[in-house]
């Protein structure tokens, strides 16, 4: 009888609970539902032009220009099957690779260094919304420190109503950023709400520009990937857009088989794909099997270790001003979520020779931390 492995389980200790174990044992294929909010009216050239200066102060101008596009559930699901929660890397036939702080900075233009996103997680949420967004929120729109995003769409869709003072513009910008956070950066499993914990960091937009929102988003995505290696989970939150962009930029088949190839429209890499996203998609039941077989045959030359080098001269400075931390092995923090960034396991992604990495430093109990306990206790 063939054993699926690993032969030595000193590293991959969670194999009995991993989705790959279920696949090997003949379980039914699982396709995750990738959570992402519906397209908002808070977009468009007019809005970006109106609040461009404020978005630049908050270092949010890059991610604000992402076009709305579909995320392929089958692709994300097949990648999750390759994700290992013990190492925070995708295990491919040629070795390990992962989504790093560099990818977040290059693809989204978000800050990845400076102050972490953490503080007390409870406050008077209604008062916070009224103070920072300038409107009273009905209780029906607030659920456990989360705001229904349809309320944001209803009150902030028309930018012309919010341009009569600097204070109004700043309030509108906060609502705009909050909608992006809940829409496709830190999406929860409802796809309808956004946590107001993040609104508290938008009070001073200049200070917001010094916060590490990029690492906050990456650690949240790590947690979602880790949790979804459990076969019983049927949906994934976080930022499916980041995972898909990462795959498009680093895996050759997704670069070659574009329906339409276009040049970058703005500064950032994702805009290269803005008009290539509406290719008719084959949503057949066995599509995940096709992705799985492709990853099984993936060779080292099929993976782009440094896909961003050719476009570095086109980027604004803040995309690479924190490059000194790209190779750091450090814990990333988003309130109760703490996950390690193991750059030392993927040194080829930084143009370096891969050494034998140290064993991961990651207490498995960190995956069990939540905000479900008493206030100021958990």
TrEMBL record:
Pfam families according to UniProt: PMD
One of the GO BP terms on file: meristem maintenance
InterPro entries: AminoTfrase-like_pln_mobile, MAIN-like
Domain Aminotransferase-like plant mobile: 64-360
Lineage top rank: taxon: Eukaryota
Protein name: Serine/threonine protein phosphatase 7 long form isogeny
